[in-house]
Structures are given as C-alpha cells and as structure tokens.
C-alpha cells in the first residue's frame, strides 16, 4: 500500500477506540506509519499514548475502529503476532538483563548456536561478531560487547535496543518514551539513531511528552488528550511553537498565565 506522498504505508489506525469497563482510554484516533518516516505520538500522562502503543504492539486489542498492517485489516492476538508482522516495540524499561553482556542482551532468546541435538552450544564468536557489525551498521561504537549492559548509559542502552530491532528485521519500530529519563546530550544521541532507523526505511512510532524531542526527527505528529486526538499534522503544516502550544493546552494555559501576571502586578 503506497501513500499519496509515495512512501509505503506500513501501519494505519482508523477511528480506533478502547475502553476498560466504564473508562474510555481511546476514542476515534486515526494516524498512519509510513516507511522512512517518524510518526510522533504526543500527550501528557493519561492522554492515551500507552493504550495506543499496546494496541499496535499486540498487548491489547481495540474495541472499535480498524488496525491495518500494509493495507490488510488485522487484530493482533499477542505481541508475538505483532512481531511476526515486523512490529518491534522498545519499552521505556528496555527489559534488559543488566549483568549480562551487551551481545547476550542483543540476542536474548535468539542466541546463535553450533552443533546439533544435545550437542548444541552457544556460538559466542558469532554472537560477538554479529553484534559488533549490527551496532557499527547503525553507527554505534561500543568499547566492548562483552561488557555488562548495565554499565552502559541510558542512551547507549536505548541505541542497542534500536539496533537489535533493526537487525532482526523490524519494519515498524515503536519507541516508548526513549528520552524520558535522559539528559540533553544522551537524548540527542538517541534521537540521532531514531533518525538513522528512519533513514534505513523503517516506519518509526516515537512516543513522547516532549515536543522539543519530537519535532527535530518527526514527519507526522499525533496529539492526544484524554484519549482523543487533538489533531494529526504533517511537519510542513505545524511549527514547533504551535505544536508546543496545542500540546500544553493553549487556551487552558492562557487563563492561569493571565492570573499570574495579575498577581505579580
């Protein structure tokens, strides 16, 4: 399925909705994820960002609307099924084993082996070599892939997780608040590798509450508030200032700001 702009549409949600009992978590949300583009999903806590990515990642199923994978309507029954469709999710906690080496975390659950039957053994040499090559292919230069992943900075761990998803054939890469707990420099490093994943033809979904992190790498911006979409904008159609204003509440902030100016006077 090809978009009007020429990029292939990998994932699309149309008027998607999700409720938990009487709580409406999402209502009538629509957006697309295209190859070689970054779709940023922005909103404060409780906006519905986590619910949306859990539907895309196969953790939860939607109640209303449609989820399309490369033009075909689908309803994922598990994260494994989403992964089989090329949708890889890197959560904020990364799910790494801190005391295990970088290369073991890179392959976690898919380690290369030699031999056969009961005589199969872990192929450490191949594991280290493939990890170095995959990281280098993304422009990531680690001192030693044998070092425990827990010794890496938060930004480096995010970059390893991104490289892992790319290596194992992800078409869509979902990143859950990858810069939330990072300083300015480390956040910049992660965003650089987000851009590299995009440039390699992946469709990237970047979940964030920070428009200053989203705008430099984003191609499309979906704004959520209390489970509803405030809008979905192409980068050419919205400035960083307007994106920040809409996300912050715009008119809702003007009244308190006016009152504060009055108090100061």
UniProtKB/TrEMBL annotation:
Keyword ATP-binding attached: yes
Keyword ATP-binding annotated: yes
PROSITE patterns per UniProt: ABC_TRANSPORTER_1, ABC_TRANSPORTER_2
SMART domains for this protein: AAA (SM00382)
ABC transporter domain span: 11-251
Pfam families in the cross-refs: ABC_tran (PF00005)
Cited CDD domains: ABC_Carb_Monos_I
Residues making up the signal peptide according to the UniProt record: none
Protein's UniProt name: Simple sugar transport system ATP-binding protein
